[in-house]
Amino acid sequence: MEILPGIHQLKLPFPLQLDQLAVNAYLIQGDKGWMLVDTGWNTNQAFSAMERQLREIGHGFDNITLILITHFHPDHYGLAGRLVQASHAKVALHQIEKDFIDSRYMNMDGLLDQTAEILRANGVPEKDLPRLQKASLGVRQYVAPVSPEVVLQGGEVITQGQFQFEVVWTPGHSPGHVCLLERSLKVLISGDHVLPATFPNVGLHSQSGTDPLPNYLRSLRAIEELDVDLVLPAHEHVFSGLKPRIQEILHHHEERKKAIIASLSEGPQTAYEVSLKIPWIVNGITMSFDQLQALDRRLAVMSAMAHLEPLHREGTAEKSQRDGTVVYSLAGGR
Ligand SMILES: [Zn+2]
Ligand SMILES: [Zn+2]
């Protein structure tokens, strides 16, 4: 679908037919070749969906010369390796995430051990640990990894034909997440940083950096300052009204912070215990922790951790140890 002259949106299916998780890739016309932003999962379905949509606009994989990945999550990066073989395009990814490709998708034992350690230290019971630890292993089959040739830092300007896309580093949802800003068009390609309906997940884990939530809120406020008329997100639908949407996301995190403080007022507890008490939203539906699938449970614990650590740093919460686990409580016995 042509969103604006020279900017096409490609819809790529999720492996399990969950339409709300379909990925929007964007194809930007250039003079010598096209830039593809994000790839979808590595499945035959997504590959042929892309091939078909390219053919509809009179192109093939050969015409793609640059594949820019907004962040290294499997739905955005999964098909990259296969597309490089089909097109000989270069892949661009932020430096921080380039350095994680090997441990995340190739030699994963270390990351699995670290994940178990973090979950254990934050109170996940031993009996639930293997399921939560290995919850994301299944997605590995949907990723064809490739090392990026173009390493981004943020601030670069990518000239594609009539367009000038500025790379904006927006850490938070992932540590090297980038958005693309076309200032004269007032268009923002937002990846998973800002979505129109879902609140992007922000969790603390071994590849998140130490401060994912404060980074995320800071990145949101930075984007809010920009003069943008149209947002092209990686899921759901194209929308205008970036500022009000950012306000909703900020409000959501304020509410979660309040819920966590209310939970801590009941006494000292681990991040896992906090996550049992506060509401979670999956695909727009509010549910309790025990209604969540294993991967969402892990994300919930890591999201609670992402909130608890800044509460500790700002002095609202105290942190101590109980039988080898980290326990948070309200400072000064509030
Ligand atoms: Zn993501
Ligand atoms: Zn995504």
Report on the architecture of this protein.
By secondary structure, the chain is α/β, with parallel strands linked by helices. It folds into 2 domains: 2-108 and 138-242, Metallo-beta-lactamase, Chain A (4-Layer Sandwich); 249-333, Orthogonal Bundle (Arc Repressor Mutant, subunit A), CATH 1.10.10.10. It is built from 11 helices and 16 strands. The strands form 4 sheets. Strands 1-2-3-4-5-6-7 form a 7-stranded mixed sheet. A 5-stranded mixed sheet has the order 8-9-10-11-12, with no helix packed on it. Strands 13-14 form a two-stranded antiparallel ribbon. A hairpin with a 2-residue loop joins β1 (2-4) and β2 (7-12). α8 packs antiparallel against α9 and α10 crosses α11 (294-313). The chain is globular. The chain starts with a strand and ends with a strand. The structure holds zinc ion (ZN) (2 copies). Residues 71, 73, 173-174, 192 line the site of one zinc ion.
Throw out a few tags for this protein.
single chain; Metallo-beta-lactamase, Chain A; 11 helices; Arc Repressor Mutant, subunit A; binds zinc ion; 16 strands; 22% strand; globular; 334 residues; alpha/beta; 2 domains
